[in-house]
Amino acid sequence: MSAPVRPAPVQSLADGEWHRLHPASPLLRGGLVFIAVLGFVIANLRERVVDFFLTVFAPSTRDAFGDRYGSGQDDWANDPIGGIVNHGLVGWALLGVVAVLIVVIAAFWLSWRMHTFRVTPEAVEVRSGILFRSHRSARLDRIQGINVNRPLFARLFGTAKLEVSVAGQSANVQLAYLGSALADRLRADVLRLASGARAERAAARGETAATNGVPVAAGTEASLSNGAPLPAAVDAADVATAPSASETAPARVAAAARAGALVGQRVDEFLAPELDPDLAPPESVVHLPFGRVIGSTLLGGSTIWAIILVAIIVIGVTTGQAWVLFSFVPAAIGLVSYMWSRITKSLRYSIAGTPDGVRIGHGLLSTGNQTIPPGRIHAVEATQWIFWRPFGWWSIRINVAGHSVSASNEAAQRTTVLPVGTAADVQRVLALLIPDAAADLEPLAAAGLTGRGGAGGFSLTPRRGAWLRPFSWRRIGWAATSGVALIRRGALVRSLTLVPLARMQSVAISVGPIDRWLRLAGIRLHTVTGPVSAVLPVVDRDEAERLFERLAEEAVDRAAIDTTHHWGAVEPVRPEASPTPEPAAAPTAAPDETGADHAR
Amino acid sequence: MPEHDAAEHAAPTEHDGIAAGPAETGRSDEWRRVSPKYIVVEVVGSLIGMVVFVGAALVVHFLWHQQWALWAAVAIGVLSLIGIAFEPRRVRSIQYRLRADDLVFRRGIMFQRQVAVPYGRMQLVDITRGPVARALGLADLKFVTAAAATAVTVPGLPMEEADRLRDELVALAETRRAGL
């Protein structure tokens, strides 16, 4: 602990000082496991406990139990408690238990004390560990997303887990747990710092918002940037533990009121929509009816697997093949839990655009939301499985640097932006995900979702492509508009892939022997790893060469003018920050601007 | 390959006017081949692979008296020799080109692949040297971007050329840094 740590009740966590997590964090992170282990041990010693109480309160029944335990009393392996009692070590055993408890609690407390974090204008840093200290720092301009998760238990404590994901595998910075309101505010602060926006810009935006008749947003913007105190209830909740136990009646009334406020606040948090109503436009652009969630899951590909698995298990059981149970039941359980988590995570789904990126919230009991700042989306794919086609349902997945690498359930959740939605929903979500090109994309996306052939501005695949893609060759096509490449393909599983060229990593053209014979080629746009792969499987050879050159060129151009790492830094700031300022003018012009920044 | 020639002729007109980039370091914008000595590396690798597989098949044949193993050994040997015969052609097909804003790499005769990597996208440039390549004074230059699929490795560059190219590309990547 080199730097001083400020006491707990603070207004803003993003002031560059070291802060601690919520005091309940150790309990939420590891303590529950400890309590569960304790419960397990007690449950296993149940007979012993019953025996003890019977001996105390009904000595006559002692014999019945004594017989059962008598034989194994000296056997440590079978009955360690009996052994301890027999050897007169009860005192030592109790001492040992107490010592272990003290050590565990001290370790929890110490780990909480040593776990500190700070948010500076450059980075989010976390120090943790007792014996092995770790110091992890995430640069703000590399932030790929911020997730605020509230598991059920954490919600009961009014806390939330904040996760800052940066590019790189398992490089995320996790702050578990923080007070719920503090986490929301910290997210806003981190996003504001990462955006490069200055405080006066935030204030200005607040003013314009106010004149536009959105006073709520203005108020929050101002309070966020100035670090003004929260509504009193929140502070009261965090300081509620402070000893206010004076014996006077008014104090007691105040304490009761405070407790009431605490309960009321918890209830409010539980019922509040997952999107912070002040920061986001209050309406999610997509409404996901419960029936559609259920229906889409039942009609999804996992259902077919479930049916196959159930059939195998039934056949196995009826023919007496026991090994089938061992090998397939776990898979069935996994599948069911996947479907269940898909349903629960799709409940209360919401997606909305905020000034600091797209915010996606979901969950009924355990809730979570994810904020993806602008310019972090490397590829978008809308897919429609054949069973979804009669209903016109689509789902949207994205590639984001960092947290989409692993194939785990959680990663799949995070890369699924729209679990299921109509074509109109897809249009609205695409407009949020790729805001710069939204207007140009709309007609192309409509043609790309369901169209075939050369309709709607997509390229036409030559008929000889049918040799390689007999079903989908009519659907295969590409289009490009305002820095976004669109690839349409797939007949059984319709797919429309969009790649913002400003974030394309490289482009490859590949020609196999059959391709060469048919004068065809394949094009692949390389993006960061994720569920979406942007492949144009079949295209005319000459067209492919032209497309390759065009993509390679446009990727460089778009990347050069892309300013999305600092999405909040607006034009008025840019001239002085431009790479070639006049040496005399820049230093004189800059100070009052930047000075004002720091003063805020 | 006719398209190579076409590209070489077209190249100077396409990117003539661009002053910044490799041109200012004395490089011209044209397709370049890797060192012919790289053929040796490839041939040695193929021979080792051939010896291992043929040897394994022969062991199976002589120890367990499996007739098919002999045929497998013959087939592997013949295919490997054919592959080795095409090795000079394959190595000649490995080409790279430093354009104004990106590096283009291509290789392959049966399965051709051509990749364009913008300089600003390079996260790191890696030099690796195998034992045979080291004996011949060659090195492999690997370009890593944020996309795993990019997979561009220019093999068989003379060591000093590889060093110079690496420094040049790192410098270029630095000036054109473009986020992720």
From TrEMBL, chain A:
Q: Which UniProt keywords apply?
A: Membrane, Transmembrane, Transmembrane helix
> What is one Pfam family matched by this protein?
bPH_2
Chain spans, region Disordered: 567-600
What residue intervals traverse the membrane?
27-45, 89-110, 298-317, 323-340
**InterPro entries the record matches:** YdbS-like_PH
Q: Entry's PANTHER family? A: UPF0699 TRANSMEMBRANE PROTEIN YDBS, UPF0699 TRANSMEMBRANE PROTEIN YDBT
What is the name of this protein?
Answer: PH domain-containing protein
The species is: Agromyces lapidis
TrEMBL record, chain B:
Q: Does the keyword ATP-binding apply?
A: no
Which species expresses this protein natively?
Answer: Agromyces lapidis
Record key words, sorted: Membrane, Transmembrane, Transmembrane helix
- Segments forming domain YdbS-like PH: 92-169
Q: Give the compositionally biased regions (Basic and acidic residues).
A: 1-17
The ranges of region (Disordered) come to: 1-28
Annotated PANTHER family: TRANSMEMBRANE PROTEIN-RELATED, UPF0699 TRANSMEMBRANE PROTEIN YDBS
Task: Give the residue spans that cross the bilayer.
Answer: 38-62, 68-86
Q: Which Pfam families match?
A: bPH_2 (PF03703)
**InterPro entries from the UniProt entry:** YdbS-like_PH
* Name assigned to this protein: PH domain-containing protein
